[in-house]
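Our preliminary data section would be incomplete without showing what the modeling component actually yields. Below, a chain of 308 amino acids is followed by its predicted structure, encoded as tokens that our downstream tools consume directly.
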Amino acid sequence: MDKQEPILQDPKSNDAHEDDYQRRYSGERSSRFLTGTSVEILDQFQPNETPQYAVFDFDGTLSLIREGWPDVMVPLMVDELTAVATGESKDELAALAADFVAELNGKQTIYQMIRLSEEITKRGGTPEDPAVYKERYHDALMERIQGRREDLRSGAVAPEEMLVPYSLEALRLLKERGVQLYLASGTDEHYVQEEVELLGLDLFFGDHVYGALDNYKDFSKQMVIERILRENNVDGARLIGIGDGYVEIDNIKSAGGTAIAVASDESGRSGKPDAWKRDRLIGIGADVVIPDFREFDVLCRFLWKETD
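Predicted structure:
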């Protein structure tokens, strides 16, 4: 896959900064399930327009190659914070790091490293550039997942084993319905493109694969959404967004699209929703919650108004 040009931002939009998580709904939201399924519909949501475009998140939404990444990121942060020697125990620092890593999950990786730098500064230390921490994290993560990547490359493991269940079937259903597919990830673009190809997803997304750039201000999921709407001269009602992170759900809702939250159980692939993800994504404004894609055909019939 060729190197992408930077996404040009609409001059009318705000900057590329991705906001921290802010719960939009403080109380309970009403919900119902499509008959006989685990497809949860929030607040009596009903689609207004037939979807023409779909934006997918990658890690945790489709790909499981990086499953367990917090187990790499948090210890790295603990090591950096411990070096400041404030007297805090490693357990205390691990709890601190786990909290803000989870809080910022869904944003570009650099934002978690910016927070690490801020925490080091608060403790009287002199942090390195956040990009340095990000590179260390990526190096450590690649050591953890290199075997998975090699197994996919050699054919020892089928792509389906490294995907959220029934991802391929869902992508085929959307393509059959004429939906143009886009992928936008907070992971660095060159890694995303490699892993998209390893999983065979380039057949669905083609050149529409976008990820974080060295200058993080040159990319955001919001910018991808704005570009889709601008270049295709459509409004947000024709767009669906599918992801397990709060950023894409919030961005899709802001654009007037339909936000489908994937509360995926990444480690267990159980078909049951991850409770923490579900609560977080409902709180940011999801219209629909699914645990994975095994009942996506029913959801498609609902979105295309073929069933209630």
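The chain has a mean pLDDT of 92. The chain has two domains: 31-64+163-303, 70-154. Preliminary results of this kind motivate Aim 1 of the renewal.
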